[in-house]
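N-acyl-aromatic-L-amino acid amidohydrolase
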Amino acid sequence: MSACLKFDTKKAKEEGHQEEGSLTKTTKMDCVSLPPLSKFAICGGTHGNEMTGIHLLRHLQKHKVEKAGSVSITTVLSNPRAIDACKRYIDTDLNRCFTHTLLRTPITDSSPYELQRAHELNAIVGPKGSEEAVDLICDLHNTTANMGLCVIFNSTDLMALHIYKYIKSKITSVPVRAIDTREPISENYSLDSVGKYGFSFEVGPQPNGVLRADVFNVMKEAVDLTIEWIQQFNSGVTFDGGEAETYCPVNKVDYPRDPTTNEITAAIHPELQDNDFKPLQPGDPIFQSFAGETVKHEGKGLHPVFINECAYYEKRTAFILAEKITVTFPSICVKKDCGV
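C-alpha cells:
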C-alpha cells in the first residue's frame, strides 16, 4: 500500500499540529520549507525500569550537553519516582497520560502521581499544541521484544519521517524500522506528542531493570544522529523526499486464557518468539499451550511487533499485528526568512 503525501495546513490546525507539520494524500510533491528547530528535548525514564534512556540522559547531563550549534537541548528524566523504584510506573503508565483530555483534567491531592507528573512535563516541554512547546521531542524507551531500533511516530510528522530516513541510512548494526501510530495529535497519549514534532526510540531486546552496552550504543548513536540531522537542517541542507516503509498497528492479540480463572493457558510459540516484523501468515503457529498444543494464526497475513513484551502482560497483549505501509513524502528545507 502506498500513500503520496503533502502538508495540509487546515488539517494541521484542526489536529493541533504546527501548521506546516501535517501531511495528506496528493499527487504534488513540492519541497516544503519549515522553521528551524531551535528547541530539542530528549526525555528518558518515562518508564522507570527502562534503563538505557535513564543512563544516557544522566550521561548527557553530566557532560552538560545543552547546546549543539543553533539548537538548545533540554534533557528530562521524566518519571523520577519510578526511576528511583526501578518500576515501570508508580500509579499509572505515564506514557498514556498526554492526551488533551488528561492534560486538561484538574489535579488534586488524590490524582495519580503520573498524571501530576504529566502536567509538570507539559509545563516544561509544552504546553501541548501551543507555540511555546519545544520544537522537537525524542523520548527514549526499551522493549523486552526483539525490535532492534524502532522509531515510533505519526507519519503526518514530516520532521520525524526525515529523521527516521536519515537514521536508517546511517545505522547498520541493527535493523531500523518505524511504527506509524496514525493517531490525531489530540488523542495521542505519549510524551513525544507534547512537542510541535516528536517521536520515540524503542530499542531491544533488553530486560527491565537491566542495562546492555550494545543497546546503549545503538540508542546513543541514534540520538547523536538526530542532533546531527537537526544541525544540518538548521544550516540550510535540503533533505530529499522519497519513500519509507512503516508498520501501522491494526490489532492487538491477547494470550489464550482460562474462561473461569482468566489466567493465560499458553506462551508465545517458539517459532514466533523473537521474530518481530516478520510476515505472519494464516496457519502459522503463534502460541503453544501448556499442554503442548499449537495455536495457529487466523486471518490475513500481517506483521507481529512487540512480541512477548513484558510490560504488555498487564495490558492483555501478547503481540500487536501491524500492516506494512509505504509512505511517500516530499523534500524539506529550512525557511530562508527564519533566524536560526
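Residues 1-28 have pLDDT under 50 and may be disordered.
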